[in-house]
Automatic annotation (TrEMBL):
It comes from Artemisia annua. InterPro entries: Amino_oxidase, FAD/NAD-bd_sf, Flavin_monoamine_oxidase. Pfam families: Amino_oxidase. GO terms for molecular function: polyamine oxidase activity. This is Amine oxidase.
């Protein structure tokens, strides 16, 4: 329902753990166990069933990839040499950068060929294929709108080199392995924290909570509490944001007493955190086809040609594909508003709407009749009060510095130095949103946990550990 991939095996600590515990092999089939998704030629179909030739799709896909490689700093030029036409400065978004890239490409195109008439002319095809890639990019970044995704930070995000692979025994095997190193009973599940009481100023014996010398007190939703010397907070940025804007929720309310310092609150507010959901669909047995294709869907942007039977929440879905070749389970990704809408819909509505959409896409291919599904499974990260979304991104108006600000422990060491009193390292912050270059990933979350554990080891001079 959540993480599946190791994003680059070269140097990834998650890959090392998975390899060590033999989680990369299984007797059971698993998601993306073959190279099916690396298929360079998925079937791309335009709304109402027109199968698009790679001659039309590939140049646009290459343009999009070239623009994103340029944005990420992987390449110094863009296909067609259009980089000089795209002026990028200040607080620009990935969305507006892509818009300029497409515009320059269109100018090149119009010099080369005229438009055709009909439902799909060349220009609207180019625009819609480009939009398909933009929608895939929304799921990679979790930004609902690419105009909110900061351009400048794109080149700071680092991916490990090497192949991207899935874990045969699933990500839970990694968690289980990490947890098995701890003495039993140390991990307490189902304890929801709703308040972390800390001592930003000088701690004297009077203003402690009467729990020995420990400066932090954690209050749980069930009314119990626990005192601590140090707390490493790893709740999602979504939960932190909800706490900051005091979005009261009856099942979980998470906050700090006193509230976090303003520079932390500002960083939390500025950083982006979005919703990405997965939708799994199982084909019904009467869909007797050897294999369902890796289907890329190109939707009309013009209202005039839109098929009214296709609901808005499917119109930004880039693809639908089996989880491995010949699997009857298909997977599609949703981001932003569409992902939230998906969470709210009953299974029957999802099955109906997706069947109608896919049948219309496959109407001119050799598939017998309507596509029917028998089962649906979807994630619901946006409405889960323990997550409030999926992963972080650098929004326009924020920067990677906000990530570093979020990662700073409390109380601020400068305050402690100036008052020459108080307990240091009461609240530490880890989790994907606190890793400057690997945010949004499991390895980012893991590495940030090591960082904070090491901070405490150093504090206690446990240099040999
Ligand atoms: C659909 C999807 C697909 C993804 N795919 C990948 C992928 O393929 N590869 C990859 O590397 N990453 C992927 N990610 C991202 C990855 O899952 C996250 O970056 C990672 O899980 C973040 O870990 P974390 O520990 O920072 O936070 P989280 O996983 O958000 O964990 C936070 C924890 O805090 C707990 N919590 C929250 N509030 C409270 C409270 N009040 N009291 C007590 N506990 C609380 C939650 O229960 C949760 O256990 C994906 C994410 C999603 C949603």
């Amino acid at each position: 329902m959540g993480a599946t991939w190791i994003h680059g095996i070269g140097g990834s600590p998650i890959y090392e753990i998975a390899r060590e515990i033999k989680s990369l092999e299984s007797d059971q089939p698993w998601e993306c166990m073959d190279d099916f998704l690396d298929d360079p030629n998925p079937i791309t179909i335009a709304e109402n069933g027109y199968v698009l030739s790679p001659y039309i799709v590939d140049p646009v896909s290459n343009l999009f990839n070239s623009l994103m490689d340029f944005a990420k700093g992987k390449k110094k030029s863009i296909l067609g040499g259009i980089e000089s036409d795209i002026c990028v400065n200040g607080n620009v978004s990935v969305g507006s950068f892509l818009e300029k890239g497409l515009e320059s490409y269109r100018k090149l195109l119009s010099r080369k060929s005229g438009n055709e008439n009909g439902e799909w002319d060349k220009e609207s095809l180019v625009e819609s294929i480009f939009a398909m890639h933009e929608n895939a990019q929304r799921t990679y970044s979790a930004a609902n709108d690419l105009h909110k995704l900061g351009y400048l930070a794109e080149s700071e995000w680092v991916m490990f080199p090497g192949e991207e692979i899935t874990i045969a025994k699933g990500y839970s095997s990694i968690i289980e392995s990490l947890a098995s190193a701890l003495p039993s009973g140390v991990i307490q599940l189902g304890k929801k924290v709703n308040d972390i009481e800390w001592q930003p100023e000088c701690v004297t014996s009077e203003n402690k909570h009467g729990y020995g010398s420990r400066p932090v007190k954690i209050h749980f939703l069930d009314g119990t509490s626990m005192s601590a010397d140090h707390v490493i907070v790893t709740v999602s940025l979504g939960v932190l944001k909800a706490g900051v804007i005091n979005k009261a929720n009856d099942s979980v309310r998470f906050g700090f007493s006193p509230t976090l310092p303003s520079h932390k609150i500002e960083a939390i507010t500025r950083l982006g955190y979005g919703v990405v959901n997965k939708l799994f669909l199982k084909l019904s047995p009467d869909f007797d086809l050897d294999r369902f294709p890796f289907l890329q869907m190109v939707f009309h942007k013009s209202d005039h040609f839109k098929n009214p039977k296709i609901p808005w929440w499917i119109r930004k879905t880039a693809s639908l594909s089996p989880i491995y070749e010949k699997s009857r389970v298909l997977l599609s990704w949703f981001a932003g508003e569409e992902a939230l809408k998906l969470e709210s819909l009953p299974d029957e509505v999802i099955l109906d709407d997706v069947s109608t959409t896919i049948s219309s896409f496959l109407s001119q291919k050799d598939y017998n009749g309507n596509v029917k599904f028998e089962k649906v499974l979807k994630s619901g990260w946006g409405s889960d009060p323990l997550f409030m979304g999926s992963y972080s991104y650098i929004a326009v108006g924020s920067s990677s510095d906000d990530i570093d600000t979020l990662a700073e422990p409390l109380p601020n060491t400068k305050v402690l130095e100036s008052t020459k009193s108080g307990s240091p390292l009461q609240i530490l912050f880890a989790g994907e949103a606190t890793h400057r270059t690997h945010y949004s990933t499991t390895h980012g979350a893991y590495i940030s946990g090591l960082r904070e554990a090491n901070r405490l080891l150093e504090h206690y001079h446990c240099i040999d550990v």
